[in-house]
Specification:
Length: about 80
Amino acid sequence: MSNERPAEAGELCTCGRPAVVVYVNEEYGDVGYCGIEGAAFRPVLPCPWCGSSEAHKEPWGDPGRCPQYTLRPAAKEERKGTT
Ligand SMILES: [Zn+2]
Ligand SMILES: [Zn+2]
């Protein structure tokens, strides 16, 4: 069983696009969904989570979510400023 709720700003679908709904799953964690049909076949690149420039695929060829997928990717605000 899983519940769903409206997504909040900053929450992402597995394809990298902003989510519109979030499926709350106790076993696998929360997963966002953008609602765009076929979007999983055209994920946002580079990957918002691991930076890969290639789409993730399951071993059998279906589009796969990033192994590092989280509902909210860590913000990279620390990059700016002096190094
Ligand atoms: Zn999506
Ligand atoms: Zn990735």
